């Protein structure tokens, strides 16, 4: 009987010990995603030492960025600022243009308009803005859906410049059969305005800009509508993208739509979503080219990364596996470019040296 009691006591001790170990594991703190409040300059930070990053490599990275005409560089992990640097007389309060990185703002607002029932991206563009918005034959124009505008597969001639007046939007291929980087995506802003009954600016401000505390404004430049803001406002939008359209407790953009926007959207250019570039695919196309390049868009960068890339090296990099966002604003690092450049790959080699 005594032996049985001892055996039972030992079993209880082992069980208690096991429970204690389980509790220790369960109680291990997991850092929650942080979102800065609106209308405040307060933004939580995180030390590089906590992440085990190299301070030496960071200094080399910042020196490199300064020599490459950079205005600002910002890194967030779990929403907290790890690096925020300004160069060449730029400041935290100075606005700068997003260029084509701002295409993703159009993607976001389109998603909001769809979830509110104003549009369906599978419907043809002419359902919202009427026929005759291109010079294509009517039967060809009516093939063009809102999704085609978001995926750069309108089939319209991309060699005629940024003018999106009807006479400059000419048929070259059936919608969905050809990928070409084209300013015609801006017609989606007209679709949103027409369907909601609000101006593009008013709907954008009410549904996206104000809810996440962005600043900035749309400024017409030639035939384009370009967004200008501070680096922190670009970071706010990037943080929304990292969290699949969720800001704090509010789902601003449908999560499924966000996932579709940041993954391959068609079979022609595997490196493109809904105006977002997608890394880690087998091949991709570049602006102003019909050539298919093999491999990842940015080979040195994480494969799960998606990117908003603008003229002269405006960059948003979103890396879900690391819960990381990286922003770069400035002049062209080397030569003028449409979106992608050799700078992306070189920059990521230096980022990797710091974070790995």
UniProtKB/TrEMBL annotation:
Sorted alphabetically, the keyword list is: Hydrolase, Signal
The cross-references to InterPro entries, in alphabetical order and at most eight, read: Beta-lactam-related (IPR001466), Beta-lactam/transpept-like (IPR012338), Diverse_Enzym_Activities (IPR050789)
Name one molecular function that GO assigns to this entry: hydrolase activity
Stretches assigned to the Beta-lactamase-related domain:
72-327
**Which residues fall in a coiled-coil region?**
none
Q: So which residues are the signal peptide here?
A: 1-20
User: Which protein is depicted?
Assistant: Serine hydrolase
Species: Flavobacterium suaedae
Per the record, the domain of life is Bacteria
Pfam families named among the record's database cross-references = Beta-lactamase
